[in-house]
């Protein structure tokens, strides 16, 4: 069995809610509420869910851009959640992020050359000549030209800026890249170009990726396994094919029913969920999906279902799926 590159155990990110004259903590927004995940070397794990389900916060908490409230993040034999700040800074070379808004994440006053060189210099990589050679190579790998290195971020289109964001992540040769909605700010016509680039780079560099998106069809294009999140928890994880052919959690089924399918005979019946996503400041008891679930029973209202394997590496957090009462 392959050893995971990343293993997340019971990860929580609770943001305090301050209230009253003395600004005391009066509650918590449970953005991430006990997540277990593994990512294996060379695979792309997709994280999907509605806006506000905690998927981006999960990515940022894994990278310690946000300090975790609780849990463990094992990477390369070390628990990132408790690593001293200086050691964590060194580890960042191996853990890079591609952000949703490439423009906001690139310093507008720096040239692309300076942006890429900065990444190498922060981690003390290479001599001056080696750094120049590496950035000239990487800019071409992402489909831009050497001349582009002397320009500023505002000289580029959204798609080109995201290529620069990808180059910045790749230039330090990381072991894991977390891509947070990397194409959602781009025009649809440009999205597929950037996705295809990521797909090619994944093959060429044997990248390990965590790909966060609200869009299941985007995740299907790129990922090997997919984790579905709902209200700060993972409700289902499966191989891409198993998830699309045989989704088991009622929430996954509803999400998938909204994805257009190419072949007419595969047409799915649309499952409409009642109500909105509840507030993570006041999540429902038991299975947090129960107020919107068409199959909810009494036990669902009081007992939190565990995320348990139901066969073939598919893990589902649902009482009725685990007891075999929910039809396939
Ligand atoms: Fe629905 Fe109950 Fe399963 Fe939750 S545990 S998804 S409420 S059937």
Give the helix tally.
Answer: 11
Could you give the order of the helices and strands?
Answer: EEEHEEHEHHHEHEHEEHHHEEH
* Major β-sheet profile: 8 strands, mixed
Strand content: 15-25%
Q: What's the overall geometry?
A: globular
Number of strands: 12
Radius of gyration: 21 Å
How many domains make up the 3D coordinates?
Answer: 1
Q: Name the CATH architecture.
A: 3-Layer(aba) Sandwich
Fourth-tier CATH superfamily name: P-loop containing nucleotide triphosphate hydrolases
The hetero compounds bound to this protein are: iron/sulfur cluster
What's the mean pLDDT score?
A: 92
Q: Calculate the terminal CA-CA distance, rounded to whole Å.
A: 29 Å
CATH class: Alpha Beta
Please state the structural category: alpha/beta
Would you mind describing this structure in some detail?
This protein is of the alpha/beta class and 328 residues long. It has a single domain (6-94, 174-323), classed as 3-Layer(aba) Sandwich (Rossmann fold), CATH 3.40.50.300. Helices cover 31% and strands 23% of the residues. The chain has 11 helices and 12 strands. An 8-stranded mixed beta sheet has the order 6-7-8-3-9-10-12-11, sandwiched between helices. Strand 7, helix 6 (188-205) and strand 8 (209-213) form a beta-alpha-beta unit. The radius of gyration is 21 Å and the shape is globular. The protein starts with 5 loop residues before the first strand and ends in a 5-residue tail after the last helix. 38% of the residues are buried. The model has no long low-confidence stretch (mean pLDDT 92). The chain binds iron/sulfur cluster.
